[in-house]
Amino acid sequence: MNLTISITHKLVGCGLLVGILGTSAFAASPASFEDFRFPREASLTKDGYPTPLSGQPITKTPVIAKKKGITLKKYPALLDKVFINHLHLDHCGGIFPLFDAMGWGRNTPLRVWGPSGTTPELGTAAFTENVRKAAEWHVQSKRHVLPTGGTTITTTEIDSSKFSPENPRQLVYNENDVKIYAFPVVHCIEGSLGYRLEWKGLSFVYTADSEPSTFEAEQAKGADIFIHEVLPSPEDFAVHSKLPLELAKNVINEHTVPEELGLVFSIAKPGIGVGSHYILGDTNIDNAFKKLRTTYDGPVMLAHDLSVINVTPEQIVIRQAKTSMLAPVPNPPKLKGIDMNPGKPSDSKTPAWLSKTRIVK
Asked: Could you count the other beta carbons within 10 Å of the beta carbon of residue 86?
């Protein structure tokens, strides 16, 4: 029994939640291609933390043993469920590549959960409807080539107006022993959520962008994994973003700095606290940990793309996945009851005069 969380900044992970891995309670399968080595040697910062893209997770505690005398497990997924925290494009804009992948590797709709807005156009349903509309040329051009089952999106909008001190969270998913609760977080305007996933005694919380609050910390209490955003101080952010200090302060005021993240983790007391959304320059790593350690002394890591965390009742194991930029598309699962009909071809055709110029061998 293990829960696998994979972190990807643009879509699955820091952004568009976590595409909560696969169905069947997150069972993972080994890759069938040669591992890709990141194009840099393994190296450490001055304080001994792994540097980004060195093939190692950014933490000094890659294994958190929950029981004594256990043997470390060796860890070697189709995505069809996405939970959106909020609709900033750096957290949900990656839905287009995922939508495209559906047309090739799977013939089931993409299921999306996300917040409502104070008006319909600010909600997730409007967002996914517009994604589908924007993809019309893409879909029509494949009507005569690929099945159409994967070219739809089904959206469940979570009503943000129903949250209150008396109703702090809503059960939004309950399948295969997996329960996912949504709760509101403080970020910009109404319509930002955190999620808590519970499965067979294991738990995972993800809040994406948010200002630190005791409320979100309480919702994450005792979670095995708690992923929360973290950004540098306004002064450091101004340097790296090339923004004037006053504008940098405006941005950081809507986020969480390392010292504040430590306070949140101190309340939540997770098995492993994970900071995401951070600026991962080699020179920034030590500064993040130094400031965070002024308010928190538990296990912590900084997430970057392809970080993987495996959780069992006995332990938490942090790894850095390896992938291949040249890897072939993996074999799709065998699905029953799926309509493999490509659908009616579009009436739109390439002009005849242009088609006549096609080279035929």
From this structure: 23
Which residues make Cβ contacts (< 8 Å) with residue 211, sequence separation at least 6? 185, 186, 187, 253, 254, 255, 256
User: How far apart (Å, rounded) are the C-alpha atoms in residues 27 and 30?
Assistant: 10
Is the alpha carbon torsion for 289, 291, 293, 295 positive or negative?
negative
Annotate 166-220 with DSSP letters as a single string: TB--EEEEEETTEEEEEEE-BSSSS--EEEEEEETTEEEEE--S-B--HHHHHHT
**How far, in Å, CA of 200 to CA of 361, rounded?**
59
- Distance (Å, whole) CA 177 – CA 34: 34
* Poorest-pLDDT segment among 13-27, 121-135, 231-245: 13-27
Hey, what are 200's tokens? 């067979």
pLDDT band at 16 (very low <50, low <70, confident <90, very high): very low
- CA 48 – CA 65 distance, rounded (Å): 21
Please determine, for residue 119, whether its predicted confidence score (pLDDT) is greater than 80: yes
Q: Tell me the C-alpha distance between 12 and 359, whole Å.
A: 41
What is the residue type of 249?
Answer: K
Contact between 29 and 77 (Cβ < 8 Å): yes
Phi, psi of 35 (to 5 degrees): -60, 145
Cα–Cα nearest to 194, from 289, 113, 271, 131: 113
In sequence order, what DSSP letters do the residues of 286-320 get, joined into one string? Answer: HHHHHHHTTT--S-EEE--TTEEEEE-SSEEEEEE
- Phi and psi torsions of 317, nearest 5°: -120, 130
Least confident residue range of 71-80, 218-227, 255-264: 71-80
Residue 18 predicted with pLDDT over 90: no
Query: Residue 105's pLDDT is what?
Result: 57
> In the chain, which residue ranges form alpha helices assigned H by DSSP?
89-92, 95-105, 124-134, 136-141, 214-219, 234-241, 245-252, 258-268, 285-292, 352-355
Q: Is residue 147 helix, strand or coil? A: coil
Q: Per-residue pLDDT tens for 63-91?
A: 888 887 777 776 544 678 899 999 999 89
**How many other CB atoms are there within 10 angstroms of residue 138's CB atom?**
14
